[in-house]
Amino acid sequence: MTESTANRESHCILIIDDEPQIRHFLRISLKTEGYELIEAESGEVGLSLCARYSPNLVILDLGLPDMDGSDVLANLREWASVPVLILSVRDQEPEKVKALDLGANDFITKPFSIDELLARVRTQLRNYERYREASIEAPAVFDDGTLKIDLSTRTIVVDGERIRLTPKEFSVLQALMLAAGKIVTQSQLLKSIWGESHAKDTHYLRILIGRLRQKIKDDPTEQYYIKTEPGIGYRFVEKFK
To answer: How many other C-beta atoms can be found within 10 angstroms of the C-beta atom of residue 235?
Structure first.
């Protein structure tokens, strides 16, 4: 295990991965961006460091020597809301869905593009800063000049024109917007909006997402606002900056 000084004035990232070469690669890439780093090669050490330093983001591998990464995640979610980005060679949809249902904020499969990983890191840190002090009752507004969503007034405006959404369309958009940058699984959406008995009715969700994209003028091929994670779920995306 190696540690850098956890500077509270900058973003601190905890890497939990048993592969030295991966940690080395991430260390170089993330330090170049100005992040403070803490590193652990096992789940137990990672949990201990997370409790000690309260990092702003955790990058977690699922294949650890002492415990499965999903168990680390489940343990972490019992007491911490820190964003967790899974970085794993496991690329099967059930593994991704399980991790996301356990509370992971995002999932990247190895091998990976460092530019994509850095973009996902920026998104998670930005969203964490934006929402950590907010409560569910607090007004939430998204406005990029083309699309404006005001959750407090339930107002949706596209190109200056107010549009109407059905209650379920609004509920889905609200759920995705409040978790901006985070994958929301199909089962999470179906259970929370349609109920437990509809947890597997993914066709309902696909139809609704299609209608919602049409209303907010979100090209399904470009997916500027609502991005599909095939077989897993959806995320509300602000263009990576």
So the answer is: 21
The alpha carbon of residue 199 and the mean position of all alpha carbons in its chain are separated, in whole angstroms, by 21
- Where do the domains of the chain lie, and which CATH numbers do they carry? 12-131 (3.40.50.2300), 141-236 (1.10.10.10)
Nearest 10 degrees: CA dihedral of 62, 67, 70, 71?
A: -160
Mean pLDDT of 195-203: 77
60: nearest Cα among 131, 126, 114, 108 = 108
DSSP assignment of 74-104 equals: HHHHTT----EEEEES---HHHHHHHHHHT-
Q: Are 128 and 181 in contact (CB under 8 A)?
A: no
The pLDDT-based confidence of 1 (bands split at 50, 70, 90) is very low
Q: Which helix (H) or strand (E) holds 171?
A: helix 167-178
Closest-CA residue to 60 (of 185, 186, 71): 71
pLDDT at position 204 is: 84
